[in-house]
Write a structure and sequence with these properties.
This protein is α/β, with parallel strands linked by helices and about 325 residues long. The protein has helices at about 15-25, 45-50, 55-60, 70-80, 100, 105-125, 160-175, 200-210, 230-240, 260-275, 295-305, 310-325, and strands at about 5-10, 30-35, 60-65, 85-90, 130-135, 180-185, 190, 210-215, 220-225, 225, 250-255, 260, 280.
Length: about 325
């Protein structure tokens, strides 16, 4: 891709968005960033991420707009900025359990907001769109590992249903309007600057504060964790490939190759903190999947890359950042 063109990134103050903007700017791209800085989780963390991007603001490579993708009128104006020819759509209402409490937030951000992005791409002749889907679309699937060729007709949360709807909407716009779309099914992303509502944050905080970790399904879940650097490298290779821009519609898993049981994962956090956890074992939350495991063969075939950072390496990196960020050394 020509680095003289601009890339528009939604959700740029989010976990993945922040890291991606930093990578793109460091590689010479100019990025237009959009984020509404909502209060679903700690706003100060989002602002801290944006502060880390200040050097790119000063260099002119990163231009930030505080806007909500649900506001079509405002978003339409940003899409008219000269030179944008690629959109990476990461803005979304995240979290499986919160979708049980506030499903309307997911419909607004993940369905209405995504429709706005598709329409803006269509009317501004932007033919390249990468968007965030989720491993949650695999829902009740039993076959392991999950493959992009598997049927995904059984989402078990509203969050998963909205992500499945995104994939269907993207297919339709690819078919009707010749927009090249790549949907990325992320598998439990973690690492420095991660979201406080996710288990690395929650478990680390609980252990440090001598609080019991709430373990649903009696801690018998298994997850395919993916370190943030692997996510960013995968996206970067997709952007940087001229060949992939000729693909009309793609869905790709981006997930760590090894799945790990929840209890073994907690032991890695305990080891990094040199402190033992306390537990509160709870019944299963039926909006959550029992197991996730990613096949990344298609990603590797297309990019020559597949996630490689093992969780035993990634967790200590996360804990180190956590202790530094929250001044706990």
């Amino acid at each position: 891709m020509n680095k003289n063109n601009k890339i528009l990134v939604t959700g740029c103050a989010g976990f993945i968005g922040f890291h991606l903007v930093n990578k793109l700017c460091s590689q010479g791209y100019t990025v237009i960033g959009i984020d509404n800085i909502n209060d679903y989780y700690d706003v100060d963390l989002k602002k801290s991420r944006l502060n880390e991007l200040n050097p790119h603001v000063k260099s002119g490579q990163f231009i930030f707009y505080k806007e909500d993708i649900v506001n079509l009128e405002k978003i339409e104006k940003l899409f008219k900025i000269d030179g944008i020819n690629y959109v990476i759509h990461l803005a979304a209402q995240a979290g499986v359990r919160y979708s049980l409490e506030n499903p309307h937030a997911y419909i607004q951000s993940n369905v209405v907001g995504f429709m706005n992005i598709l329409e803006c791409c269509r009317h501004n002749k932007i033919n390249n769109l990468i968007y965030a889907s989720s491993s949650s679309v695999y829902g009740g699937n039993k076959k392991i590992p999950f493959s992009e060729d598997d049927r995904v007709d059984s989402p078990i949360s509203i969050y998963a249903a909205t992500k499945k709807s995104n994939e269907l909407m993207a297919y339709t716009y690819s078919h009707l309007y010749n927009i090249n779309t790549i949907g990325l099914r992320f598998f439990t992303v973690y690492g420095p600057w991660g979201r406080p509502d996710m288990s690395p944050h929650i478990f680390t905080a609980s252990i440090l504060n001598n609080e019991k970790i709430k373990l649903f399904n009696n801690g018998e879940h298994t997850r395919s964790f993916t370190y943030i650097d692997d996510i960013i490298e995968s996206i970067y290779r997709l952007i940087d490939s001229d060949e992939l821009q000729l693909k009309k519609y793609l869905l790709l898993n981006i997930g760590g190759g090894d799945s790990i049981q929840l209890m073994d994962y907690i032991k890695l956090i305990e080891k990094s903190l040199s402190k033992q956890a306390k537990y509160d074992f709870l019944p299963r939350c039926y909006a959550e999947m029992e197991k996730t495991s990613a096949s990344t063969n298609q990603l590797f075939d297309l990019t020559g890359y597949a996630p490689k950072i093992k969780i035993k390496e990634g967790i200590p990196r996360f804990v180190k950042w956590y202790l530094e960020y929250y001044n706990m050394y």
